[in-house]
């Protein structure tokens, strides 16, 4: 794992956005794996800025999003599809038909997960996967468990994740289930970029980098991948051993 500590979320956003833009310049047909949540927002802002400056195009790119809530209409502002449209896709030139999501409302969940996995494979696999990390070490919506997960599947969200994400929802309407790429799907990406900021992520970051490989912290699976870049701010890095 290649770990870089940067001063703040803005610096991480610039570095992460620049890394993605450089990859897209080098490979205009890039297949991106994309993430939601607060962490990627400065990164998406940087990509938009560089696209609008005429420096990078995503007209030939394809994307696959990590996860989606179950039981939310697509048009709900909290659906990850709405999030991506608002925060990135509507402001760059990626073609809507080239942006792929799990459909959290599909009646046959297993068939939907199989469809999504097959579409990723048909696209040639993910070249660059962007990730955040949950406070409990989840990646995508792969919650701590007894075994690492494989391909996309439907999962029940943990209390920790519900508490962290319920700030976006009114009252008690936060979904309890989601569909997510599995850890196996994530590890097949050729390159992974994980970003984390803030003290609330420090323990998960410590486990991911220095902890024992264990599904109790799903992000430790990234230790097995050969091309992982991690951008942290000082607070997220605060529990790492100093050398
Ligand atoms: C969410 C998403 C993850 C994200 C994580 C951290 O639940 N499913 O993909 O990485 O939680 O989110 P944030 O960046 O808002 O802390």
Number of strands: 10
Radius of gyration: 17 Å
Through-space gap between termini? 16 Å
Strand order of the largest sheet: 1-10-9-6-2-3-5
Give the percentage of residues in beta strands.
15-25%
Q: What spatial form do the alpha-carbon principal axes imply? A: globular
Helix content: 25-40%
> Which structural class is indicated by helix and strand composition?
alpha/beta
Average pLDDT level = 96
Sheet with most strands: 7 strands, parallel
In short:
By secondary structure, this protein is α/β, with parallel strands linked by helices.
Q: Can you offer a commentary on this structure?
A:
It is built from seven helices and ten strands. By secondary structure, the protein is an alpha/beta fold. The strands form two sheets. It has a seven-stranded parallel β-sheet with strand order 1-10-9-6-2-3-5, sandwiched between helices. A three-stranded antiparallel β-sheet has the order 4-8-7. Helix 2 links the parallel strand 2 and strand 3. The longest helix is centred in the first third of the chain and has 18 residues. It is globular. The relative contact order is 0.18. The mean pLDDT is 96. The site of 2-amino-2-deoxy-6-O-phosphono-alpha-D-glucopyranose (GLP) has 14 residues, from helix 5.
């Amino acid at each position: 794992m290649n770990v870089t500590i940067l001063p703040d979320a803005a610096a991480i956003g610039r570095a992460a956005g620049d890394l993605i833009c450089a990859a897209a310049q080098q490979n205009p047909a890039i297949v991106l794996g994309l993430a939601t949540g607060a962490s990627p927002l400065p990164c998406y802002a940087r990509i938009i800025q560089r696209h609008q400056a005429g420096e990078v195009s995503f007209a030939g790119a394809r994307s696959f999003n990590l996860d989606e809530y179950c039981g939310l209409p697509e048009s709900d502002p909290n659906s990850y599809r709405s999030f991506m449209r608002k925060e990135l896709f509507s402001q760059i030139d990626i073609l809507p038909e080239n942006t792929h999501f799990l459909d959290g409302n599909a009646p046959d969940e297993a068939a939907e997960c199989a469809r999504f996995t097959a579409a990723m494979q048909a696209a040639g696999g993910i070249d660059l996967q962007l990730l955040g990390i949950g406070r409990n070490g989840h990646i995508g919506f792969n919650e701590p468990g007894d075994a690492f997960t494989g391909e996309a599947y439907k999962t029940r969200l943990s209390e920790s994740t519900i508490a962290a994400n319920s700030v976006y929802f009114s009252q008690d309407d936060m979904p309890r289930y989601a569909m997510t790429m599995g850890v196996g799907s994530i590890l097949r990406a050729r390159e992974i970029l994980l970003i984390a900021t803030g003290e609330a992520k420090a323990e998960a970051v410590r486990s991911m980098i220095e902890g024992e490989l264990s599904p109790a912290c799903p992000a430790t699976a990234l230790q097995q991948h050969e091309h992982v870049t991690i951008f942290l701010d000082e607070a997220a890095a605060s529990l790492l051993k100093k050398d």
